[in-house]
Amino acid sequence: MLRQALATFGEYLIFLRQVFSKPAKWSVFLKKWVFEMDAMGIGSMLIVCIVSLAMGSVITMQTALQIESGWIPKWTVGFISRTSIVMELCPTIISLLLVGNLGSRITAEIGSMRVTEQIDALEVMGINPASHLVLPKVLASIIVNPILCVFSIAFALLGSFLTVWITGCISTYHFIDGLTYCFRVYDVVYALTKTCVFAFVMSTVASFYGYRIEGGALELGKASTQGIVVSSFIILILNVVITDIML
Amino acid sequence: MITVNNVSKYFGEKQVLFGIDTQFEEGKVNLIIGRSGSGKTVLMKCLVGLFTPEEGEVLYSGREFHNLPDKDKLSLRKEMGMVFQGSALFDSMTIEENVTFPLDMFTEMSESEMRDRADFCLECVDLKGVNKLFPAELSGGMKKRAAIARALACNPKYLFFDEPNSGLDPKTSLLIDELITKITHDFNTTTVVNTHDLNSIITIGETISFIYQGRLGWHGSSDNILTSDDQTLNDFIYAQPLTQRLRKTL
Prior knowledge:
Chain A has 247 residues and is mainly α. Chain A is built from 8 helices and no strands. Chain A has one domain (34-61, 73-246). Chain A is elongated and about 70 Å long. Chain B is of the alpha/beta class and 250 residues long. Chain B has a domain at 90-155. Chain B has 10 helices and 10 strands. In chain B, β1 (2-11) and β2 (14-24) form a beta hairpin. In chain B, α4 crosses α5. The longest helix of chain B is centred in the C-terminal third of the chain and has 18 residues, at 170-187. Chain A binds chain B through residues 24-25, 28, 116-118, 120-121, 123-127, and chain B through 48-50, 73-75, 77-78, 80-82, 84-86, 88-91, 102, 104-106, 160.
């Protein structure tokens, strides 16, 4: 099993070398890049905003419920909510959500191109299919995912605020006080760095599993699931590593 | 001309091609025929570079394809056009975009020049008024013709067809066969067709390579294929009751 995992990792590195080669024509590459950014960003915006709104709301309710002691200042609810949202929930949970949303889309798209010989057609034409198809997706996700993460943070904080405002569990004054307490720009940098790394993992692993499909519809389904599982697993491990390095 | 010298191909331990030697001539329709699983598609994929043979060489007008430097391999690939069994049209693009795609990638043509070229190629395959349609909106025969138009876009010297008649009705098959012959003679291409369609074998095969269990079983033309005394070839050609009846009349 270890030998197989190493062989797959080797194939992945060879695949990355093919992906990161000079595009055949820059104008075509730029067109595809913009198209991918549009498809990924606009296509995922709604789900990201809804999930973030709900996530922010729940985290605030949970925190307010746990902190009932009179010894703990009321602004702590806002402070803990913000820290959880900015540093962990939005970059990691939203990246995992995007693995399911964008990653499966990438695997299915590239996999069906493989199954229907469209990738072979590109190769016969003298075009590097890995670079032509995957590079725009990888670069688009590295740009788009952090933008989605910023939106996610904004909507999660909005969800938190609305919960406090509607339920009245603490005053909005105390909540905003906690929200702004000891705010560090570095926390956002840390969150966006994580998102960029996760975006790279999501797009390359999903593409890799789609690219190496052999067979038909059954293998396409399997590859899509494998891509999601492996990406999620790597993201969770990298989350620990990056946290250890950056904090 | 394409020359195949002693080509062998393995998949793991399994050998699929056993030292194939054959030639595909310029300006002619060259067929590769054989039963399903005989190695026809593997041989064709070795020809176009989708597979690399473990032994032997494939020469394009004297140039050994698999050992060429990347840059030369790329320029040779630009001289090739291939029509896949399932057409392999890019389904996110319109038919016109499919045809102009190789032009967009490899030439400095303006938009209008590319559109004119696409119109010309689609006219060559008798496909008009479909420029703005997507592949999913076309019938199987139309998709094949659109794929041929795309293969023609860059004026290829070498054209490859992988089972062009599969899944088509007899009349459409006939049209595709006529088209292949016309294109080959009009543009003087070296055309290689992978088929097991008997009508194609008899009507368009100017040179025929019969592959049997990964080996070259017979080489000849449509003039002498029906009268050959090769047992394995006859078992293939006269497998159906209709052709058995035909044999009796010969």
